[in-house]
Specification:
Blueprint: H1 2-49, H2 54-65, H3 73-82, H4 85-88, H5 92-98, H6 102-113, H7 126-129
Helix pairs in contact: 1-6, 2-5, 5-6
Length: about 130
């Protein structure tokens, strides 16, 4: 009898943990989708306010944000083989600064800060998500 209760308890705990992990992955996916949508909204507003920068913003999206670029294992390996270490470690901020779009990048970061709180279980990872 005790063996059966222990087995059912372990099975229940495992089911709860699996459910929490599935919910967390779902929330991470939703958070990433929300951030991408927010980022595109800021970029659209920027292009509306600065129509002369449309080509530069398209380059920023391709080079700094990797939007529109299909990343496959082959072209990733080729890119890494051709790249220097400092090129691989370029941040979005440095990339935007090098293109003269630091203000756009700052606007995107300010927009991200408007996402103030995360639902549980993502709230457990709050510090790592806000960086």
């Amino acid at each position: 009898m005790l063996k059966k209760i222990t087995f059912l308890t372990l099975k229940s705990v495992l089911a709860i943990l699996v459910t929490i992990v599935i919910v967390a992955f779902g929330q991470i996916g939703q958070l990433m989708a929300s951030k991408n949508h927010l980022e595109m909204s800021v970029i659209e507003n920027w292009v509306t306010a600065h129509p002369a920068d449309i080509v530069l913003v398209a380059e920023y999206r391709e080079n700094c944000l990797n939007h529109g670029k299909q990343v496959t294992r082959d072209n990733l390996e080729q890119s890494l083989a051709e790249a220097k270490l400092e090129d691989v470690l370029v941040t979005k901020e440095r990339c935007a600064k090098s293109m003269g779009l630091e203000e756009l990048h700052n606007n995107i970061e300010v927009a991200f800060q408007q996402i103030e709180s995360y639902a549980w279980p993502l709230s457990l990872l709050d510090d790592s998500l806000t960086n």
